[in-house]
Write a structure and sequence with these properties.
With 166 residues, this protein is an all-alpha fold. 75% of the residues lie in helices and 0% in strands.
Length: 166
């Protein structure tokens, strides 16, 4: 039985693998940028959340929960970026070398599997963030002494010229 350590790919197949590795580079850069910005945003958002406790403890607590969810999102994005770096490196090894193709593909697929499992976790995080945001929407009018519910008129905008609508 022949060893599958080297898998013979046609130049067209190697081109497809190279293209995939190129797109992975783009996606991993986007993940690192988004993860870094989310990390900074969650750290800065905690200051506003702590300040909100004085006005409305419920709103402040919801804002803290939201910032923790954003922190989880940031960490997940950064971990996904690392997984894509590793998968991209393994796919490049398939194209650039004629040995250990099977091992390179195994590494690439394992990293991609983890990437997509984390992506499933994003769905849960996004659902939680939407629920917290909805809760904050219902608590916000109470903070502004507008009473419960939504402001049906004007959106809370005070026209300094007394002209009414736009």
């Amino acid at each position: 039985m022949a060893s599958l350590a080297r898998i013979p790919f046609t130049p067209e197949q190697e081109g497809t693998i190279s293209t995939l590795a190129g797109w992975m580079l783009f996606v991993l850069v986007v993940h690192f940028i988004a993860g870094g910005l989310a990390l900074i945003g969650s750290c800065l958002g905690v200051f506003g959340a702590v300040a909100s406790f004085g006005v409305s403890p419920v709103y402040g607590a919801l804002q803290v929960v939201q910032m923790l969810l954003v922190l989880g999102l940031a960490v997940a994005l950064l971990v996904q970026g690392v997984l894509l770096v590793q998968a991209r490196s393994a796919l490049s090894g398939v194209v650039q070398t004629d040995t250990s193709d099977q091992q390179h593909l195994t590494v690439a697929f394992r990293r991609l599997k983890m990437f997509f499992l984390i992506e499933v976790g994003f769905t849960g995080l996004n659902l939680l963030m939407a629920l917290v945001g909805l809760g904050m929407t219902f608590v916000m009018p109470d903070m502004a002494d507008l009473g419960g519910g939504f402001d049906a008129g004007g959106g809370g905008y005070d026209d300094p010229y007394g002209g009414g609508s736009w």
